[in-house]
## 1
Amino acid sequence: MDLHRISAALFVASALATGCYTPNITGGAFSCGDGGACPSGFRCAANGRCYSSGVDAQFEHSVTCDSGTSTTSVCSGIPISGECNPGCQSGCACGWCAVVDGASQCLEGAGGTKDVGVICDPSRPSDCKAGLYCQPECGTGRCYKLCDPSNDTCGGQSACDQKARKVTDGGTAATPFGLCRLVASCDPTATNSATCPAPFGCYPTGVGAQTECDCAGNIQPGQSCLFLSDCQAGYSCNGPAGGTTCLQTCTTTGQCAAGSTCTNHTTGPFGYCM
């Protein structure tokens, strides 16, 4: 009889009887499951990885990856409020630079896949492509390009005149980062434009054929208003100063109700039924 083998077996049996084996799982070593599921004692962080509860996951990103962002700035001036530059994508030893809770932070892996103007989730810093920011608005969010107000590089009809905001307990708060205004090509005569879906609405800007996709207002047709987007989608705020009301947006009289005409085409193709 092998006494050494018997002794070893008794030791293992004793260990199993007195306690359970608990593996030492490294934070961020595995991905979250469906619905953000993680093992007991772990939580799903913004980067889609599981971290132990009570540990601030933003500091647990790995620095052992093979590729990263440039360590020298290749574009100018976007304010840095944190550890890297999210517009230039510079300053990270690996991964990519995102804006998280109002400050720039290096995240492992790659940025998201959603492009400018696409609806996104503001609670997920990696929802939009690198260099973009998910701006909370209208109860959801949209991807905006980060920019520097002092050196506007938005191009086209856009401008760096928006302020990136972060979600707070009381709503939203401004951050140091600028955003390029979204320029949308949509149909302001429609109540639900394909390129500007609810909860947004398409409105004429009053400058030529330019349109904007903004949070849809809730003022009923015929009621008083101040701004174009105060009105429901398909309508806009028009009329003489001091007497503006929500009127149906149109391009031809055929779109208006009987007895009304599509008027005020002086600044572009869009008028209103009156």
Note: The helical segments are 3-18.
## 2
Amino acid sequence: MRAQAYFQQRVACLKKVFGDSRLSEVTVKEIARFQAERATKVSPATVNRDLSVLKGMFTKAIEWGYALHNPVKRVKFLRETGQREWFLSKEEVKTLLEQCSPWLRPLVALALHTGMRRGELFGLTWHDVDFRANCLHLDSERTKSGRGRKIPMNTSSPAILEGIRASSPVPRPARRSESG
């Protein structure tokens, strides 16, 4: 979901509960009540995102002189149980690849085989591909975490990359393993 739409969704949820209240009336107790009730309907991560938006709103209100303190700072966020895992079925993968335009299909296939994000894929260069070591090298500027990483290639990934290289109109540099 785009950031703006996500933020608007969070604000709409908060507005339903706190919209008619003055900032001074929003207490730790009211926020804790919202947190408990919301936790019965959505995941702890979603509740925490709601509280993060509310916390940011209070921070701005203080900065602009509309509030004296931020009651959200005194509310303990919920423990998040971990990341959601979801895997496409073979049928879903087939449908996804069939719906892709021809130029995009190999990139989506590579993403499926490596777990790379869109920005990582689009930033990939031939210098990042190590066919000899059978891995892809990402530097810290191109990863979400800000840490470089090495992505192992499965048996399908090299063939996908070779297909991309063969169909590319861009002159091909030497393979990483060939150039040293």
Note: The chain has a mean pLDDT of 89.
## 3
Amino acid sequence: MRCRLSVLSVFATLSLVIAASCFTEAQAPAHQIIKFDAPGAGTGSGQGTIPFQILNDGTILGQYIDSGNVYHGFLRSSSGTIIKTFDAPGAGTGSGQGTFGGGANQTLTVVGYFSDSNGVYHSYIRTPGGSFTTFDDPSAGTGAGQGTFADNINKNGLIAGQYTDSNGVFHGFVRSTSGKFLTFDDPLAGTGAGQGTGPSGTSGLTDTGWIAGTYIDSNNVDHGFLRSPAGVFTSIDPMGTTSTLPIGLSANQTVGGVYVDSTGSIHGFTSLNGAITPFDAPNSVDTLANNINSQGTVAGGYYDSSFVEHGYIRSASGAFFELSVPGAAGTADNFVNTKGQITGIYVDSNNANHGFVYE
């Protein structure tokens, strides 16, 4: 697909059962899991439906990969009766090309990016009515694998993302509602190819303009950052980390993410006002985080000792519960909204991805 700084870990799996093994807290309330697939989604290995954001009204944003390995965007309505699929104008139709979702705000305005037929990336804004505006950062490179990647939009219409310049260096950007661009770089970021600065996807920008993300230094090491609306950077690195990857932040600037320790094990963390709290899902070998909502709830997945994947939700207070699907190859929870509705993916025996919503 493409090499970028922001990370959405795509593990997978699910079926119709919430494991009553709710980790630390009281039993999960009676809810249901609804599985779904976008029309046209492929059924081969690595193909299928990948939802990654659920808004407070229950609308789900995601992307699907068809049988030709081309990417497309989709919106699933809260009623579940309509899935709108979409392709940005100019999106390529070759394998690994197409339209990628970045994020949506509560008005259902979607931002994302697309790869053209030459493998160059461009960004788009899709209105609730389905109209597209495409754009490029003025400093973005025009070679294959380079370009502009819009990842976040807040309630005010501010867009945050990253671009790759002609030398292969990543830079963060903020785009105003009038179309003006502001480039930002963490002061400690490297300036070589494959290095630089980029915000986290989907939840890396708050409504008040705070941004969380990753920078890669001159030694090619990943670090986290928090950028204030005034442009002040704070580095985020849990103790003992060899690589830090924030996945977003909450409304009160709690940063969530993952880090890798010296043994290669992966752990989750949250960071608030300089205090970093590492966490591991119970019974996990590796714990990955996929997103954090405005309330500080983290959605993710973990691997157990048999290397089976399970989804989890971690509340801001540190309580866990698990979503497990018997017979599936693994579970990943990708987002939880403020009402407790969860969306994610599960993988079948063919390693194809399918979507689910827990409500």
Note: The chain has one domain: 33-358.
## 4
Amino acid sequence: MHYILFEDQSHFDLRPFTFTRPIFQRRAGILTSYDRWKYVLDKIPQTVAYDYLADRYGSPSLTGDCIWINGKFCPNEELLRLIQSIEPETYYTNEQGEVYVARFNPSLLPVSFDGVFRKETWEILELKMQEINIETKAIRYPYDIFQLNRHFIHYDFALVTANRKSEGVKDPYTRVYGKDNLFVEEGVDMKAAIINAEDGLVYIGKNVKIQEGAIVHGSHALCHNVTVSMGAKLRGDSAFGPYVKIGGEVGNSVLMGYSNKGHDGYLGNSVLGYWCNLGADTNTSNLKNNYASVRLWHYPTGRFRDTGTQFCGLMMGDHSKCGINTMFNTGTVVGVSANVFGGGYPRNFIPSFSWGGSAGYTTYRMRKVCEVAEKVMIRRKVVFDEQERNILQTVFDRTAQYRPWDRKKK
């Protein structure tokens, strides 16, 4: 049986993170959703991605009977039973209309299908629907990524450490509390640090470097080749993807991969995509002075939307950066490839390819965007290829509506 991971309408709710990658290629916990499902299924699934993302992230070439799995859901026993028992030309949905899993031949998809399964897509397919409600976690909105991060760390920890032995901590000057909750991969370089895993599971991946005086407290995922700066204070329920550099004070935040926050400054209840960089002494507010619920920019409606949570910091899309001493207000959304700098507080919604800060913005032109991306990525031995260039160009074109200074020029 072939498995295919797909996206639903949440693809648009999760922007800016899904401008450049599908939901199932986004990290929460130790793994991306794609890698999590690969572990659980014990098989490499195919994928289907939205429109301009399909060349890089998947357009299934299969025919015949296939099982389609919604990549935003976390696997659990009940969902896995559905996957194993689902009948042909059937799909399971919850009372909100979110489809968990379906089984049908890809040839049934309409020619106009753009890679995202909407309500009307299922109507066109004319499959048999069965409604069932499963208690499983799902990433629907950007703030779900940090709010559910502890859950995903614990779920992934069981997957990746099953029947394996931790390398342990060899440095005599590092103090560990709750050692049974700590798993250390090979090649870790750790000196005079404090690891407190009494309140949650801590996973330290291959070739991680933890420098002197760093404190890691509570549930954490430090993926391979992460560097933790001297004196870092890492509060619980955070995850740092491959090659992330992390320092200062960080709490309940996710840096998906290849991003840097290596200096002092506070980052809380925040999510940074890939290839982001925060300048020295950058600080984020994650709580309003009046303790009110945070409103966050919502791309599908084009307005700020109530998150229903008191704590929400910075949501920063791929390839975006900020200068030293940048101050981000509570609930700030930064799009793709923005460059933020200058004094004062920038606005709470910074469109993709913006260049500037509180004093005003111009457009970060594609030629310069690509030059910088190429230089940044080659430092991590990653090639900035034509597919990545095309994705950024498409996002640039499709986000022009959010840059009012571009419209004024016209």
Note: The chain has a mean pLDDT of 94.
